[in-house]
Amino acid sequence: MLTSASIKNQALTLGFDVCGVAPATALPELSFLPEWLARGFAGDMIYLHKSAHARADIRHFLPSARSVIVAGAIYNTEGPGPATRDPGSVQVARYARGQDYHLVLAERLEQLASWMREQQGASLETAIFVDKHHVQERVYAQHAGVGWIGKNSCVINPELGSFMFLCGIATSLALDVDAPATDQCGACTLCIDSCPTGAIVDAHVLDATKCISYLTIEIDGAIPESQRPQIGDHAYGCDICQDVCPWNLAPVLTADPAWTATPRHGASAGELWLRTDDELHQFVKGSAMTHLSLAGLRRNLATVIGNSGDRALTAVLDRPGRGVRNAAHSAHTPVVEDAVAWAKGRLK
Predict the structure, then answer these.
(1) Model confidence, pTM
(2) Residues with catalytic function
(3) Domain chopping of the chain, boundaries
């Protein structure tokens, strides 16, 4: 028969770094989402409004749920702090440097769920969730003892830090649950103080509309002009609030081949700009960066170039063919043109 201990052991065997079990109940932290949405912090992420009711209780996701298995996988392959980069190079958030975590984690969860049914019987009901599903993973992670929700809204494990993917399985099986993780942020406010856009408006409260990750990934149109200088050299996502966290000063590194960094972070924005759309597609292929349109990536690259301070890059933006739409550069939309015009003005 299945036990919490046997499931955790199997999860570790499948490549996860930590695993815990939470009750499938209406946990108090789940009720904060409507208030957060009402304050306008979701911005253009309309899908969060549409799915708010479903996210309020895991039993909306799996009606027969009695337990929630939460697994975490460390994705960090680098040491503490951002590496020194050349002007005009791009930052890519650590989680997007390897393979697309949605696919990798879903496959591992399916293997775990299949193993559970083999052990317990085919009547066992399970439903996996990996970020895109209507589940508040962080809340269940905290109640599964995986880690507490830090002031930057990331889940922090005292041994592993916060560079960790979260995912899990809701199941009809009643399991022994773990003790909830205890908040250990204390009086520290480094993440709040270090955010260049002031996105962490209060402890545990993130205004997504100010977050660099939101601005570079979630927005389909133009990045608000007043916020473009704050983007700095971030072409996809941001790690600042995690980089400064004391729990990540000596982060656990992973050798998992799925997350082995590929040559994306630190690439030249100018060199990437000069690539055709097909070449840019090859640059992001297989990673979570494919969830951003090529037009969005070009918009971000132009913004990084504008923030570089390197006037020589103005000529890169003026290269023939980049100012017109054609088969090789179909992602050159009006939003991209706007970013280019802004970048040129800023460099001058």
Answers:
(1) 0.92
(2) 131
(3) 4-85+100-171, 190-347
